Amino acid sequence: MAAKQSEMRSNSNHYRNHPQINKGLKFVIFPTNTKILWWDFLMILVVFYYAFSIPYHFGIGGGYAVITNMRFFIFQLCLDGLFIIDSILVFFRAYRDVDGRIIFYHRSIARNYIKSGWFFINFLASIPTLLISYIQYPNQEYLLEGLHSNGVRFFFFLGFFKMFRFIGMKRRIRHLLDTSEFASGLWVKVNITTAKMMEFVVLILLLTHWLGCIWGFIAFVEVGSWDEESMLSTPNWMGNWQKITTIPGGLYALGWENHTGRYWLCMFWASQTITSIGYGDISPVTTAEYAVANFLMLCAGIFWAYVIGSLVEIVANANKLNRDCITRMDDASQMVCDFAAQKLPEKMTGSTAGVKASKRGSLHKNSLDEKNALTLSEAYPTLDILSPELRKLCALHLTHTYLETIPYLSSKYLSADEQAEIALQCRTLEFAAGEHFSSHPEFRRGLLIFKNGFAFTSRNLTKTNLNWTRDQGGHAADANEVLVEDEYYKEKQIAYHFISFSKVLFVPRSAIMNALGKNPGLKYVIFPEEKKAQVWDFLMILVIIFYAFYIPFHAGISSGYFTFTNKGFFGFVVSMNAVFFIDTFMVFFRAYRDDDGVLIFSLRTIRRRYIRSGWFFVNLLASFPTTSILYAKYRQNDMTVTGDTLFILEMFKLLRLVRINVRIKKLLNTSETVAKMYEHVNLGISLTVKFVFLIVLVSHWIGCIWGFVAYVEVGHTWDKEAVISTPNWIGNWYVPGPGLNPIGYSNFMDRYWLCLFWAIQTITSIGYGNIAPLTATEFAVANGLMLCAGIFWAYVIGSLVDVVAVSSKLQNEYVTRMDEANQLVKNFQDSKLPKSVTGSTTGVKASKRVRRFLTNQKEHSTKNWMDDGNSLTISEEFPTLNLLSPELRRECALHLTHAYLETVPYLSSKYLSPDDQAEIALQCRTLEFAAGEHFSSHPEFGRGILIFKQGFGVSARNLIKKASTWTRSLKGYALDVNEVLVEEDYYKEKQFVYHFVNFTKVLFVPRSAIMNILEKNPVAWKKCARWRYFRAALVLESLKDADALMEVV
Q1: Does residue 401 share a domain with residue 279?
Q2: How far apart are CA 411 and CA 346, in angstroms?
Q3: Which ranges form a coiled coil (predicted)?
């Protein structure tokens, strides 16, 4: 975009300075002109204004508000003047043709403007219709009567041409985004999902407004006037409604001066119609009204279906990251659950963090990337789409600051192209807390430039003399040793020990960071990983949720009656307020992560950021002892004081809800208990619980707001006489009798259930219509609540569709695979084969065994069920491993297989190092067998060791002899440990064959992996494996001798 703007500016300057180009060029307005950009922004606002005002004046007000208010009349004339100026300016505005060329020749601009037809539309739109009507009827009363004449109506009709400008508004908005640096900067910062949601909210408001004005215009056409007598005497829906619901003090929609009340009534019908609530209290009367109502309801239904569909798509797109995270967290949870050893000895892991691998694995997510070491092109796929020049520019934007910290890679010695070339070879690495790093297993040595996180450094992994290395974003030092040869450097190389999640830029063959001093105030800092901080965060989440329900209830339903009359509950509320007060000042000592993920623990920085953010003042007001002061007033006056101005301070507590998501995420990332619960709870259920809670909370809020409206209408009291005598929806609804009684301070629970009943009706679009607004204020609030409820319900539907899709993924995959299995069975040429052909010992049909196998896979969750193969490496079985750093991948592999490998003597930690065991672990495969199968060697990977995970079977030396050995399912029981070492030719004649008698899962260690490790590790071979080999050879030789003896006999 910046390149496009600079190109346009340079072109315009070139054309202006060229002596032989069009002499009238100085009058041309180019698209990049700053003044014209502000003019476009102003015209967008004007068009939006007319999109709302013209339907209102035509269908609701009849021009009364404009005619009777001179200031408003002058304001309208000024806007008409802006339209006239804009229509003329188009003759001087350069534009881009279809091929993207800037056309700045006056004659071409004028010809294009006139041929397009927009000149005539703009000309009609800029006619000052209001001024002409006012001149024709100078007296206000005559003007109102003149609105019935065809001439005035014609001039009013010309005002609709202003709304045609709404069509071209999208083009102006795109032009602003393309050329205005300010607008494009805002667009980049705003989340796309948020922008889409705002667009739909504006669209819903606009369509609701239009439908309401059309519905009002129908009544105006039926009667021909807004005069009260004419409206009541002529059949029309508005007069009919007013006759039925006329209550002193209620909403009155008849008469020229009551245009506001008429507007809220029409909007109420439109909101009901669009959101499909349909209380049924506003209905058409005449044939024309029924016809128009049918058309409007169809349009509203189609529009609402479009809104729901669009919101489902928006929610799906917004939740794409969440869905991928859910899938990956499921993979990680499955991997953690399958850890053969939940805790390994420190000598096996080399970890210095004291944090479980399950927790470290869940912390260590590289967004949606499929591996940990990413080049810039892999981290930002957009780079591959760009032109070479733009790719270099973006690469420099990403890394130039970091490269400048390295003297010999700075722009002082390297050109921009050379820096960009290095930048495209840099890789982003991520490390979990407790990992250490000296060189990358694939890319070897290199320079680490910290993006976030911090670490200790030492000269090797055994000495404990550690230096503190703070993160200073992008700071690189000690860039010399990386240049030294490997042979000279390796003995005393620097090792990094990461004590928090860290992200670094890895530059192959570059420099290494220097150690920085400790922060002297560190002992007063509260770090996120501290258990006390985690417990406090959990307590604050509960307190905030309590206030999210309590404050609306206190304000709109009980008016503080229950709090002030119950000393126990009053004491509880005061203690909650004290917790808020303590938390307000604890923030001054709490370390936090900035936008780049850097842990900030400088007390000065923490305090400065807390005060500048404004949250300190919000929290201070929220912790003000409002309840105690109001309680003292209540004890003196013996009356509730919810209407007191001081109660507004309580609302500041609700602002803490904005930050509750941050605390929850922090708990998930730092608390071991919460993380463990999160790992073991199905994520589909978690999301469903979340949305149920959200529905309950929003229903509670809407119900309390609806109750608060009646409370304000009555005069801030729930006194019985005041509620019944003052116009309000509760007094209108209430009928004396044995039923629900919402009137009176002590009946606050009855009042709450009534308000909640209306809220749930409104949200779920049921709308029985037995609770209806009465006054203009109630109608206005009801319109807003219905629209909010409709949008919220559409959002909930879209989100729940997404949750159901995620939750049903496993079941749908199972059904698909069973359908494929049925198709397979249907195409069997022989439904039953002889036992001599199948080798099966179960007597069960193959079709039944296939279905049972698939069902067992799903029910036992024996692997990542949706994988496409049966023989999987642990990286394929647990895709999370591919996302982790090499160090953490090695540790997780050991967690998964260490207990199994220890059952094989020559593969145990007694002879092999953790790296050797991890190397074997990553080559192991998980095999699954159905009942009745037999196995001797893998068709692709040959012979190997089988280590049982579940199931059992029998083993025999061949398929002919009946002598078999029972093999029970002992978790970690290893088979064929000795004979797997014997050569293929010598072993094959008397090899073991395994017959599985139920669904069985085993860890398969290929012979090739075993022999490779033993070749690298001569100690394991000499001290253990060769004696195992000798024993197996003796057993096989004795079997040969026994067969020979049998033949002689």
Answers
A1: no
A2: 45
A3: none
- 373: tokens are 């070491």
**968 class by beta-carbon count within 10 Å (0-12 exposed, 13-18 middle, 19+ buried):** exposed
Structure tokens at 675: 């993380």
Q: Are residues 182 and 207 in the same domain?
A: no
Indicate whether 808 pLDDT > 60.
yes
Q: Taking Cα atoms as reference points, which of 160, 153, 294, 143 lies closest to residue 221? A: 153
Going by pLDDT thresholds of 50, 70 and 90, the confidence category of residue 360 is: very low
Q: How far apart are CA 800 and CA 270, in angstroms?
A: 27
Please list the residues that pair with 457 across neighbouring strands: 467, 496
Residues 651 and 745 grouped into a single domain: no
Backbone angles phi, psi at 929, to 5 degrees: -130, 140
Query: What does DSSP assign to residue 927?
Result: E
CA distances from 456 to 360, 477, 489, 600 (A): 18, 15, 19, 17
Distance CA 100, CA 4 (A): 11
- pLDDT number for residue 814: 65
| Tokens read off for 351 | 């970890």
**Is there a domain that residue 251 lies in?**
no
The token pair that represents 557 in the structure block: 């339903």
φ/ψ (deg, to 5) at 766: -80, -60
Closest CA to 161 of 121, 197, 134, 127: 121
Which residues, other chains included, contact 592 with Cβ-Cβ below 8 Å and sequence gap of 6+?
528, 599, 600, 606, 609
Q: Tokens in use for 1043? A: 């067969």
Q: Count Cα atoms within 13 angstroms, Cβ side, for 397.
A: 8
What pLDDT was estimated at residue 297?
76
Query: Do residues 687 and 670 both lie within one domain?
Result: no
Q: CATH no. for residue 449? A: 2.60.120.10
Torsion of Cα atoms, 398 then 404 then 409 then 412, to 10°: 120
Looking at the DSSP bridge assignments, the partners of residue 456 are 468, 497
- Is the same domain home to 757 and 894? no
**In a shared domain, residues 575 and 465:** no
Helix%, strand%, coil% for the chain, nearest 5: 65, 10, 30
pLDDT over threshold 50, residue 1005: yes
Average the pLDDT over 364-389 and give the result.
Answer: 62
- Among 158, 275, 325, residue whose Cα is nearest residue 761: 275
Q: Based on the domain organization, do 676 and 687 belong to the same domain?
A: no
Name the domain boundary from 792, 807, 822: 807
DSSP letters along 468-519, please?
EE---TT-----SGGGS-HHHHGGG--EEEESS-EEEEEEET---PPP-PPP
Q: The domain spanning residue 709 has which CATH number?
A: 1.10.287
Helices 914-921 and 1007-1016: crossing angle, nearest 10°?
Answer: 160
Residue 844 counted as domain residue: no
Query: Tell me, what DSSP letter sits at residue 923?
Result: T
Query: Within a domain: residue 640?
Result: yes
Q: Identify whether the C-beta of residue 131 lies closer than 8 Å to the C-beta of residue 156.
A: no
Q: What DSSP line would sit under 290-348, residue for residue?
A: HHHHHHHHHHHHHHHHHHHHHHHHHHHHHTHHHHHHHHHHHHHHHHHHT-S-SS--HHH
Question: Which of residues 501, 518, 535 is at a domain's end?
Answer: 518
**Is residue 908 a part of any domain in this protein?**
yes
Which residues, in sequence order, are bridge partners of residue 1001?
A: 928, 950
Q: How far is CA 713 from CA 383, 515, 757, 759, in A?
A: 60, 67, 20, 19
Q: What is the pLDDT of residue 869?
A: 46
Can you give the pLDDT at residue 76?
81
Whether the pLDDT of residue 202 is over 80: the answer is: yes
Q: What is the pTM of this model?
A: 0.55
Please state the domain count of the chain: 6
CA distance 379 to 389: 19
Residue 748 has pLDDT above 50, yes or no: yes
Residues 1031 and 956 in one domain: yes
What residue numbers bound the domain in which 283 lies?
A: 193-246+257-301
